[in-house]
Amino acid sequence: MFRKFIPFTxxxxxxxxxxLAADPPWLARSxxxxxxxxxxxxxxxxxxxxxxxxxxxxxxxxxxxALAVSRPQSTGLGGGGFLxxxxxxxxxxxxxxxxxxxxxxxxxxxxxxxxxxxxxxPSPTIYxxxxxxxxxxLAGLAEIHRRFAxxxxxxxxxxxxxxxxxxxxxxxxxxxxxxxxLADFEKWPQLKEQYKxxxxxxxxxxxxxxxxxxxxxxxxxxxxxxxxxxxxDVFYKGPLGAAAVKAAQAAGGVLALDDLAAxxxxxxxxxxxxxEGYEIVTMPPxxxxxxxxxxxxxxLHEMALDFPGGLRGIHDDLYPPLLxxxxxxAFADRARxxxxxxxxxxxxxxxxxxxxxxRLADRFCPAKSEEYGTKQMPDDRGTSHFxxxxxxxxxxxxxxxxxxxxxxxxxxxxxxxxxNNQMDDFAANPGKPNLYGLxxxxxxAVAPGKRPLSSMSPTIVFKEGRPVLVLGASGGPRIITxxxxxxxxxxxxxxxxxxxxxxxxxxxxxxxxxxxFDREPPATLVGILKGANKISTEHKTGVAQAIQFLPxxxxxxxxxxxxxxxxxxx
Length: 570
Ligand code: DON
Hints:
Bound molecules: 6-diazenyl-5-OXO-L-norleucine
Distance between the termini: 38 Å
Mean pLDDT: 92
Radius of gyration: 22 Å
Number of helices: 21
């Protein structure tokens, strides 16, 4: 019944444009290796590494360097990320956290003062030096390389040096990101002087690129060459880091050389949870993604038990409202409880326990926002996710971010490294929504050395010990709802991956108390939800990348049609 309903109501515009028999261009098949990233150039560079005998970790490192060139609006050496991986030779899953941390000078008092003094201009945690967290990206790639790679780092950087010199192709996503940044420069003309380097280079002095333009990044090529020749210390103890510190301080921030020297990635124990015969393996705090995904799945499962056939057999009209309810519980708990596990006690096991889900499900869908989650507390741009699978069974899910579009706009000159604005992921402005409209709690207050809470959710799904799906997304809090729904569409509702990716996505993040869709939703879906929910007319989207492992050994790679990525198979 449910499956009959899905194609007619959830699958709209994208699917219409697909010839049902043929794979769309954003989907690829291979028996031996696959890279699915949101940039065609980066997927190709990663797949070349696999083709030359590198493993999934080699390919992931090369893909990530390439993304630093071709997706400057989303990621790069001035950002940070999370990895969830299956390491075939050790037969285990692992998680690596190379999230930014707050600089030692980033005290709560400083950010309270900044929030109080903020005038009519953009928030100080969005643009400028105070937005910048200590970048973890290169330390993360170096750690992945040290532990799992088979090729010299030098070789894995080379293709990206060439890409930076010859240029990547400006696509629609890049054009619209530039336009979005320029809209702020129009609104606040002082930005043109404050961030004149990025304005004069990537932002084309106010003229967005045309689709198909080749965008070269000679300064970044210089930085990549130094990394290839001297290794990652060139950032954490050398000239690239010194340039980042100089730029962040000149833009009013407190990033210091000591912060860079002290930065360490952390291995984390991935969250593992059973779900309807599958095992979900995903990112723990300081991501909120894993906790929210598992809590939502558990609540959905409990609610669906009241219906014949459980979640699979659920009545046509019930999945969307139950999903919204379950999301509201999970996002309310995100705001109440989650933050850096090294700085606050986070009750992860309680939040992901079936008992807790049962109690939330018993409350069903309360009318008031305060009644979601533990009762106490009142768009895709700056992130990139990719997946890699190799012939030996290694699997990589890696999400990386500079946070907002082109991060803080601050550039480490003359190396073209865009510094993140991850400080906005803290509850830096207490009680006020951040860039993604999220209200956050005490556990996520700013403190020196602390990691800001994230939504990034690299995830691998297993069945009886064999991988069935690896995925992740970009899009702020929509990362969580995108990963969750693509995963449910595949593992629970048996949709082919193309359909699972294209289906309309529902988003609710507790506050604001509104249901969002990624595009104009079918009238039937609005009809089902509008009685109990306020429906937002604002459409924003997460962007997912995934690889499915079919029983016959085929790898199906898919890049969300919403951003323009292309998978590359062998
Ligand atoms: O870590 C986080 O949750 C955010 N910095 C992610 C931001 C994001 O996904 C932006 N859009 N692509």
